[in-house]
């Protein structure tokens, strides 16, 4: 029954807080659903679930229901065990879902362009994608735009009681709801003028082993497949498609070569191969020996505005002049680029007489021009888009780890989080988090002012966690001049900037961590905190020292509270209350303009709750630069430490 409930898509049974800066695969291995226990080894994760299954089919159903990752092996019985494989890699801040990297971006009116460069608006196509997007994002977002159309997989309804004309509306997905009877992941029609975040995606980068498995699978299905060295000097798979395809178009001078891509889309991130995919023409020649000889279609054609009135049946001697400007290659996104001179076969383009003009290009030994009606086979590549090479196993290691003896290891093994703090991180895999600046960067000195939140919206456990986290990151950086500020309505310097290796400073810091009391204020004033942080960093005179403000807060009640008692008034006399956040923005701009860096650790979802809060954080962080999100204070852990180290451990 349990398996049936999961497979039916009742996603409210599944709850997870993704580690803010660990990959999706690693998170689900460290903290599996249903109280499973995971063990991560390289690209594999073995999870043991304390549940009974009576057949291999039932065990596989459980494994697939509890993780979106490829099930390599499932074992029935009690307990049930599942071995998952990591097949693709995403950036640390993205959600890895099948062969896509998912991220939520840009709170604006609906726009297909809102996702920005390298991303597109994601269209949910099946129940599995729907389920996992809702599971992963419901703790962070309430609702967001999707790329779905009305006649697609999602079946939206109107969010109000009155029936509206939905012809001009777009579809949003609501994943965050506190109402038990409302299913997470319900789709609604919405006016495109409403400002929401956008669900964005890009192709994930496949590992070499994954790509090889794809090629072997197509070979086993009877499709002639091979591999060749691509322009990244990496091996890329190619499969011969015997479909004999012409090129359609609205008129004889307007061939639509982009439609050829449909033939390769049955393959994961499949696209029509071109000479741009190979390191040189000789590599393509070598691959051709594996496939039936002939010409192959590709997505290249004559520029439609280039007309030639052919009067004689021989090669036009002026065509060498026209080659570079009048023939174009179109990539899988239909972006055009000029064709390289060396990609043409000798004496081509020929522009000889034919029943139809030679408006398209085919691959033979190199490029030749060809009439659009000619029916030709094509070659597909897949696994990774043409702009991404396959990954080697060692490329999964973090920035402060190396690949050694078949696994990732911290550059300094003693700086592995599981060794430094086995109580909190002992169950983590080796080298998931390496808590040091690493390499030659560690010789550099940084000056950092930490601003920690000690107001009543922070639970006692959250305050204790912030203090221990400060100790963790000061130890990790090594050469650091650090100071600590307490964020309140009067935001004050608790420890002045000093050398962490100085015994007196260290003694004061350790005592502060051990004894500083929790929550002695209601409100906070971030603007004052930023100003006083600048004053502290200004005391560091050495221009070679990189200067940073690391700020942690949930963002609530951002103003200076004067209170009713006169002796409290002086604490805010140097600045008015700042409900609009203008003083905060002014001081943040001053941090950036001085060449200092601001690292903003946003706890919870406050800045998502209204447009004003979101816009303020966007201005403070200069377009969400160096913004690190964490769901709760007690989740400020080694993943957040490593995310901060990735910023402050850069060369200064």
Quickly describe the structure:
It comes from Cylicocyclus nassatus (Nematode worm). The chain has 652 residues and is an alpha+beta fold.
Structural class: alpha+beta
CATH topology of the largest domain: Rossmann fold
Identify the CATH class of the largest domain. Answer: Alpha Beta
Give start-end ranges of low-pLDDT stretches: 1-20
Number of domains: 5
CATH superfamily heading of the largest domain: von Willebrand factor, type A domain
- Based on the structure given, which CATH architecture of the largest domain is correct? 3-Layer(aba) Sandwich
Oligomer: single chain
* Straight-line distance between termini: 58 Å
Radius of gyration: 29 Å
Find the count of extended strands (DSSP E, 2+ residues).
31
Q: Please summarize the sheet with the most strands.
A: 9 strands, mixed
Strand content: 15-25%
Q: Helix segment count?
A: 15
Query: Helical percent range?
Result: 10-25%
User: Mean pLDDT, rounded to whole units?
Assistant: 82
**Shape call:** globular
């Amino acid at each position: 029954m349990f398996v049936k409930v999961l497979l039916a898509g009742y996603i409210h049974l599944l709850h997870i807080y993704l580690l803010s800066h660990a990959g999706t695969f690693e998170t689900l291995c460290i903290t599996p659903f249903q109280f499973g226990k995971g063990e991560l080894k390289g690209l594999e994760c073995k999870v043991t679930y304390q549940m009974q299954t009576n057949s291999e089919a039932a065990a596989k159903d459980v494994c697939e229901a509890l993780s979106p990752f490829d099930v390599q092996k499932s074992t029935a019985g009690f307990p049930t065990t599942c071995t998952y494989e990591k097949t693709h890699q995403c950036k640390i801040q993205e959600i890895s879902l099948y062969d896509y990297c998912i991220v939520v971006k840009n709170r604006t009116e609906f726009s297909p362009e809102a996702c920005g460069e390298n991303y597109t608006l994601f269209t949910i196509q099946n129940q599995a994608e729907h389920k996992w997007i809702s599971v992963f994002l419901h703790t962070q977002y309430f609702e967001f735009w999707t790329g779905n159309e009305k006649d697609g997989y999602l079946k939206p309804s109107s969010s109000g009681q009155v029936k509206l004309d939905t012809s001009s509306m777009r579809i949003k997905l609501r994943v965050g709801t506190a109402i038990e009877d409302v299913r997470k992941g319900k789709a609604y029609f919405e006016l495109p003028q409403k400002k929401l975040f956008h669900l964005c995606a890009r192709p994930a980068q496949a590992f070499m082993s994954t790509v090889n498995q794809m090629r072997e699978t197509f070979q086993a299905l009877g499709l002639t497949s091979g591999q060749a060295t691509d322009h990244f000097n990496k091996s890329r798979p190619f499969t011969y498609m015997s479909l004999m395809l012409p090129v359609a178009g609205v008129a004889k001078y307007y061939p639509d070569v982009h439609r050829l891509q449909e033939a390769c889309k049955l393959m994961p991130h499949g696209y029509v191969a071109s000479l741009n995919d190979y390191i040189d023409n000789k590599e393509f020649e070598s691959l051709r020996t594996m496939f039936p000889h002939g010409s192959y279609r590709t997505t290249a054609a004559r520029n439609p505005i280039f007309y030639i009135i052919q009067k004689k049946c021989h090669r036009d001697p002026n065509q060498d002049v026209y080659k570079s400007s009048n023939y174009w290659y179109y990539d899988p996104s239909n972006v055009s680029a000029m064709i390289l001179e060396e990609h043409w076969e000798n004496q081509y383009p020929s522009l000889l007489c034919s029943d139809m003009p030679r408006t398209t290009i085919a691959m033979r030994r190199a490029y030749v021009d060809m009439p659009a009606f000619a029916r030709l086979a094509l070659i597909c590549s897949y696994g990774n888009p043409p702009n991404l090479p396959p990954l080697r196993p060692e490329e999964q290691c973090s920035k402060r780890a190396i690949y050694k003896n078949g696994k990732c290891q911290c550059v300094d093994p003693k700086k592995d989080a599981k060794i430094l703090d086995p109580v909190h991180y002992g169950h983590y895999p080796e080298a998931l988090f390496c808590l040091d600046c690493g390499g030659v960067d560690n010789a550099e000195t940084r000056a950092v002012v930490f601003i920690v939140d000690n107001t009543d919206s922070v639970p006692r456990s959250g305050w204790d966690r912030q203090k221990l986290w400060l100790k963790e990151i000061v130890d990790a950086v090594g050469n650091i001049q650090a100071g600590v500020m307490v964020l309140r309505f009067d935001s004050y310097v608790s420890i002045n900037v000093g050398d962490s290796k100085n015994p007196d400073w260290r003694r004061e810091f350790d005592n502060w961590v051990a004894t500083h009391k929790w929550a002695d204020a209601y409100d906070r004033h971030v603007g004052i905190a930023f100003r006083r942080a600048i004053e502290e960093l200004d005391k560091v005179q050495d221009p070679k020292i990189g200067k940073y403000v690391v700020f942690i807060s949930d963002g609530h009640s951002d103003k200076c509270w004067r209170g009713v008692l006169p002796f409290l008034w002086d604490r805010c006399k140097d600045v008015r209350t700042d409900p609009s956040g203008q003083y905060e923005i002014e001081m943040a701009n001053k941090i950036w303009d001085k060449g200092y860096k601001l690292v903003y650790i946003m706890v919870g979802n406050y800045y998502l709750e209204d447009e004003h809060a979101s816009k303020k954080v966007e201005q403070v962080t200069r377009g969400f630069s160096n913004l690190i999100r964490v769901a709760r204070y007690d989740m400020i852990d080694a993943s957040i430490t490593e995310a901060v180290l990735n910023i402050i451990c850069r060369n200064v």
